[in-house]
Amino acid sequence: MVSQCQQPKKAMQHLTARRVAGLLSRRGVAAFSSSGVKMASHGHGGVTEQTDMSVPLYWDRLDTPLPDRPYKDTLSDADKSLKQKEKGPWNSLSKEEKLALYRLTFNETYAEMKKPTGEWKTVLGGIFFFIGFTGLVVLWQRYYVYPPHPRTLDDEWQAMQVKRMLDMRVNPVEGFSAKWDYEKGQWK
Asked: Which residues cross the membrane (predicted)?
């Protein structure tokens, strides 16, 4: 017979083994899904790296004049010496050096960001393409899908209908027949 003291030990060992297995399985999943690991994207063969959105990022945007970090993080020796020179008086810097300092912090100027692109041509071309394609579909449907026009829409039929309505004197006070001169045989 098992003593009461041994039963809790077995239960604790079983519980501990379950926790260790759960911990190992979670760590295994975390190792394959961390942001630093490169993964194949949905079987396309391309390798992508996930971006860590918790660190400061650089982007050129008109509504955000100062990005979170400079454009160039790693500086060459020439860039480092230029940064040291920046700490001194700016009158001693040449125009090219000032421009190089600007390019260390920013990728594009506001003028370069505002420069018009040719994207409107692509959008307009796409719109015209789809309008033309829709017109071709409607034309195809008109000839091959829809039934022919009824005979009541022909000009001859409508002329006979008008003559019949005049002979019947339809709406003679203010309507159709009121606008016809029966003595002269023409419209008033």
From this structure: 123-143
